[in-house]
Amino acid sequence: MLDGSSSLIRSLGPQLKEWLPHQRWFAGKGRPLTDVSLVAATEVLPYGTGGGGAPGLLHLLVRARPHESGGCYQLLLGVREALPPELAPALIGRPSAGPLRGTAVYEALRDPRLTGLLLERLRTPGTLGPLRFRRERDATLPARSSPRLLDAEQSNSSVVYGNAAILKVFRRVEPGVNPELELTLALSRHGCSHVPPPLAWFAAGVDGGEPGDGSRTLGILQPYLAGTRDGWQLALRALAKGTDFTPAARALGRTTARVHTGLAEALPTCTLSRTDVERTAQSMAGRLEAASAAVPALRPYRTALLDVFRALTVLGSRRRALPAQRVHGDLHLGQALGPDGDRVPDGWTLIDFEGEPARPLAERRAPQPVERDIAGMLRSFDYAACQAPAAGPHSASSREWAAANRAAYCAGYAEACGRDPREDAVLLRAYETDKAVYEVLYEARNRPSWLEIPLSAIRRLAAPPHASPCSPPSA
Ligand SMILES: Nc1ncnc2c1ncn2[C@@H]1O[C@H](COP(=O)(O)OP(=O)(O)O)[C@@H](O)[C@H]1O
Ligand SMILES: O=P(O)(O)O[C@H]1O[C@H](CO)[C@@H](O[C@H]2O[C@H](CO)[C@@H](O)[C@H](O)[C@H]2O)[C@H](O)[C@H]1O
């Protein structure tokens, strides 16, 4: 532990407690933060060494109580005597004691001088205290050019370097390799072109070079795909212009299948036993009970939805084994990048393989049926359909748009891997229901005016199976 870091946390603690809950990536909103304690501190650039008002850069891992027990948050703090006007909004506070007393401590990712320095560290692999900087063999890293912090609504923070590369800095870090690094590295080394290949990464801990279980993944540098937009924006644009999105949905189905095939070839797979399937169904039912307790609008459908999960248990007891493999874990239209324009993409690029950040790492890294991802994307078509001009969740045109694009996506999936996901209707329905239940809770907490979108899906999923909006496999 660095001299002075503990005193920095002590004297800056009240200001950090004030600042943390206002960050988009802070997960524990709503409950007061009682304590911020230091897990590790590294001086990446000691304050005062550069001379002439040069900033210092501190890397911290902190635990925020009562929210994080095993996990912690990654903070990159800049230190300057005074902040130039453009950095004024980045100020966190001024320590009242210790070696940094009176200096301005601020969010370093907003300072191009410091994010430029991070890129330089990634260019030269090595260690710095507990930090390990690694670079993929033969990877070309961009020149140090105009870094900017992305302003997206994100679970993490990303810095773009001159439209050439993007560095994602993970905010909640747990012991173990982050699936985003693990999966994109495995896929790109396997020759899959549908993910941005990691160019370099950094971690904290005992990692010997390859990402391993002894370290916490802290950040990944990947090529920046300039001239792309995410699938959510492209679908909404097609809806607004009245253009047909089904060719793009079909291509997205093909991409998903290719990524799944790549993951199954590059990483271990397994089969789920009857007990595993029963446990999965029980977890789904547990999440439904928790969501019903929190959102009264879900309660009338509880019994019918429990039947959907029961059908999964029955399926598990009838089929000898269900194939499982590593999956994306949080797939929706916002996680697919395609060309910005009206051109139908030949292939999409999938991003953000972290899985649902709120789930424990071990659960996110466990092999699962591919239906988990497929269901996530199917839900997304429902969501997009509800944004159609003058459309509501109940309007016929919105339902038709969703059904056509869901069917095109499944058809594209079947085209690329020979297996139509609609054939596994019970499995798909259970995963879609689980996702819709999650969304009910998510919308109730974050966007109450959107609650009706997942609720309309809940009504459909609670109705007898013939009400499914996916056309039969022959469509
Ligand atoms: N390789 C990339 N090229 C271009 N844009 C990207 C790339 N990776 C991410 N983005 C953009 O950054 C945003 C946030 O990335 P994402 O991986 O979803 O972060 P988070 O995990 O913080 O949600 C995405 O919505 C996308 O617009
Ligand atoms: O941003 P994350 O990837 O962490 O995901 C969370 O936010 C998503 C919304 O931004 C939310 O996705 C839901 O809304 C999307 C449209 O905004 C839709 O495309 C998705 O299908 C729907 O699930 C996601 O559930 C939540 O975890």
Automatic annotation (TrEMBL):
Q: Which Gene3D superfamilies does its entry note? A: 3.90.1200.10
Biological pathway: Glycan biosynthesis; glycogen biosynthesis
Ranges for the Maltokinase N-terminal cap domain? 19-111
One Pfam family named in its UniProt record: Mak_N_cap
Do the record's keywords include ATP-binding? yes
**EC number(s) of the enzyme?**
2.7.1.175
UniProt record similarity statement: Belongs to the aminoglycoside phosphotransferase family.
- Provide the protein name: Maltokinase
What is the source species?
A: Streptomyces smyrnaeus
